[in-house]
């Protein structure tokens, strides 16, 4: 194989030089970050179409079909209410516990499902990845878009629950939109982190349910957030105030629940600052982290 | 190895006036296969394996492509032949940028598209929706997708026996699925199109149509690679053929010569 480096007997160039001369690129090369983002933007139609298709197909073999989009959050809220509102009913300190609980459950589920499905965003789409070359970040974003569509359905259910339990409609309700935007950006970043981890560490899928359960308890979903200050050492309570799902849940409660205004875990301004902080850090950090692994997805 | 590669690089690659689209430079591809928990199927043996740190036997290396080099030019259709497990599909994956070469490099013009029989689309969705998604995934703008979708379904011929386009893809026969996939991938003009056994599954009529489509793609200044065990379809569509055996390039030249040598060897 002595002369394999010479590609063209006429020109005497090596193959690498020949490739360079005609502007050929190394196959499967990872583009620079800005170029990657630009390509990803070009795939926006694919992402929306794919997420809509996934929502449509996810419940296609159930009898009740898309009705489950409403029934699932309702059932979830009912179960938690039965346990924490009726059987253990100890939270007299929260004036409107049902609305308080449902807000927490729905907002937390948005992040929870994004994380869980993000873990399999790469491993569950290997067929697509091995067949076509596209910015792989489209897959975790699609996962988040699917969750977002389901969340919007839950939000309608939530609005009904909140109104039904006697909360007034205020102008603060409008704040739910920017809050969900922040959480969506946070979720996209987190999903990308989980997608890259999940593509490497295949055991992660087995561990995630326990991680998410722990996170649920740390996010003040099922009990009054005031319990943190009452029962935990001061430093631990301060750390927990930074917990991103807790921040987003409290922002949602701040927007929707008039009865909760006095009991927020920290001041609204601080909550918004923390929410913005997490969205920016996780959004950008997750994207960069995912991009750095671009060449590895779908191999092996 | 030198004697094996001697016939390579003759007639087909001497024309230096043409523009190269794929340059494969001494590529080695090594698969690392995780065999999973083969160290026994009980939790105890799995634990033993972790404690004693004998992870080695679960990962096996397969040296699938061993130092292959060639240059493909614009407007060429190249057949890849060789017995099962000779590294043809692996080589295509490396060209598509989906498997990293352990050594050497693959340079390509634009993004090569790999079209294989197992390129899965969404099985729960209808054929129509798969067409739209597939086209978008190839980076087509939505207006073009809308315009091309009926043509694609028409070309695939899945509607010849009733309205199958609106049924979920899991209800398709393997031939129909492969035809639809081929129709989708070939709807776009690719700089480099890699076809892996995709034409073999169709019936005779579809095969004739798809061979016609391959010729069209090639004429529109693309390069087409075709892996097939059907020497007939290679002879019909390709003018140059590369013969791989055990991961080594055994012969590279005009289809006539290479296919004759391949068939005589058997």
Automatic annotation (TrEMBL), chain A:
InterPro entries, A to Z: ABC2_TM, ABC2_TM_bact-type
Keywords: Cell inner membrane, Cell membrane, Membrane, Transmembrane, Transmembrane helix, Transport
A Pfam family the protein falls into: ABC2_membrane
GO biological process: lipopolysaccharide transport
All copies of domain ABC transmembrane type-2, residue ranges: 64-292
GO cellular component: plasma membrane
Keyword Glycosyltransferase appears in the UniProt entry: no
Regions that span the bilayer: 70-91, 97-116, 137-165, 171-195, 271-291
Similarity comment: family membership: Belongs to the ABC-2 integral membrane protein family.
Protein name: Transport permease protein
Lineage, top ranks: Bacteria, Bacillati, Actinomycetota, Actinomycetes, Micromonosporales
UniProtKB/TrEMBL annotation, chain B:
Record keywords: ATP-binding, Nucleotide-binding, Transport
GO molecular function terms listed in the Swiss-Prot or TrEMBL record: ABC-type transporter activity; ATP binding; ATP hydrolysis activity
GO cellular component, one term: membrane
Location of the ABC transporter domain: 48-266
PROSITE patterns per the UniProt record, alphabetical: ABC_TRANSPORTER_2 (PS50893)
Domain of life from the UniProt record: Bacteria
UniProt xrefs under Pfam families: ABC_tran (PF00005)
Entries under InterPro entries matching the protein: AAA+_ATPase (IPR003593), ABC_transporter-like_ATP-bd (IPR003439), ABC_transpr_TagH-like (IPR015860), Bact_Polysacc_Export_ATP-bd (IPR050683), P-loop_NTPase (IPR027417)
Similarity section: Belongs to the ABC transporter superfamily.
Name by which UniProt lists this protein: Teichoic acid transport system ATP-binding protein
Species per Swiss-Prot/TrEMBL record: Micromonospora chaiyaphumensis
